[in-house]
Amino acid sequence: MLSIVSRLSRPRPLLIIMRTIKHLGQGIMNILILTQFFSPTRGGGEIMFYQLVDRLARKGHKIFVIKHRMLNPDSSRDNLNSLPSNVIIHEINPAVEHKGGLPAGIFQNILYVLNSIKAGLKIIKNNRVDIIHCNTYSPVFAGWILSKLTGAPLLVTVHDVVSSHRYDFWERWMRQFGRFSKIKAFIGYISELLTIKLSKNIHTVSETSMKDILSFKPKCNIYVIPNSLNLGHYKPVSEEEVEYGDFIVFIGRLIYYKHLEVVIEALRILKGKCNVKLVVLGDGPMRRNWESLVERYDLRDVVEFKGYVSHKEKLYYLSKCRALALPSTFEGFGIVILEAWALRKPVIVADVEPLNKIVTHGINGYVIKNKPEIWAKYIYLLVTNEELSRRMGNNGYSKLVMKYSIDKQVDSLKKLYMKLIMERS
């Protein structure tokens, strides 16, 4: 099979060099993206890839995306249809449901890898693919094999390294789904380590993630290019148009390390002291646990779970809220921070890296310990002082524009793509 694929897909070295020089001059590339999920609303990594693909395509590049077929297609389908015509989406089996995390089934992941290889070989045979860019986990295995078979350079994005929290993380991850298996936990642990070991060129989104990667693979090429936000995907509002309502918002997967219980307990402390509510946007295995906690504390009139919402609905709640709450203790970056700043809203985050490197305490938000009484204190400060909230939100918007624009990220990744293409040639 290898020799057949090589004859079909690998041009001679001189042709590669000539082709590369030609396309470097034109600045146009054909890029193959492998990711299990691809959405503008669900998951930081998925949002990153969606915005990257959209921006690259609008700059003239042709993008092929291989992703899972979805059992629960939602309004994100409209967003996929709104992508430029030079984005070609290939949906492959197995069809899966988005439950707030990557598919946990072993066979689901194996089938994704096999079908991605099959689809990828067909794409590469019929098109000139300059580079393969993979999201983390299962796509890496497919991308690595495709790169070996066809000679296309490979870039892997690693958002975070959960194994830096040891094997215990994987046990807790499996337990929250109610189907704990030591075998699956072990496979998850080993799979993540393998994705790092197989990757020669790694793109990551923070210095924190870079340090975690280096702890497992000291000798590899790591490129830190932070996440960004395409303000064109967010309703532009002037300072005068921004509203600061009487609720805070949480956006994210409802998984154990997001620690939403800290905010719920903070609202229990604040009940009767100020008029504040919590709106939860997202879904996941911990939803029932946290809904039960709300029932136990008699906070049904204070906490509202909305589940997954469309991009338009997410922007609505961000435009009306007082602040964003992110009590998560494990993030590769935390792109929801940028989303809040895009709507000029302050953020309250847990005092962990890299969140405490992105948010400046007292300037564009608060960086605090994950204790309910401390969260209650800072929620109260913002809810009772609209001018403070407005000033911090404006500071966040200014930092977003200066440091985290989509064009900066795309330009950096384009230069990296070109570098890897030339090195492979």
Rg measurement, Å: 22 Å
Oligomer type: single chain
In which order are the strands of the major sheet placed?
3-2-1-4-5-6-7
Instruction: Indicate the structural class.
Output: alpha/beta
Q: So, the CATH homologous superfamily of the largest domain?
A: Glycogen Phosphorylase B
CATH topology of the largest domain: Rossmann fold
Describe the main β-sheet briefly.
7 strands, parallel
Order of helices and strands: HHEHEHEHEHEHHEHEEHEHEHEHEHEHHH
Give the number of DSSP strands.
13
At the first level of CATH, what is the class of the largest domain? Alpha Beta
Explain what you see.
With 425 residues, this protein is of the alpha/beta class. The chain folds into two domains: 2-228 and 405-424, 3-Layer(aba) Sandwich (Rossmann fold); 231-403, Rossmann fold (3-Layer(aba) Sandwich). Helices cover 48% and strands 16% of the residues. The strands form two sheets. Strands 3-2-1-4-5-6-7 form a seven-stranded parallel sheet, sandwiched between helices. The chain has a six-stranded parallel sheet with strand order 10-9-8-11-12-13, with helices on both faces. Helix 3 (44-58) links the parallel strand 1 and strand 2. The longest helix has 21 residues, at 106-126. The chain is globular, with a radius of gyration of 22 Å. The two termini are 23 Å apart. Residues 1-9 have low confidence and may be disordered.
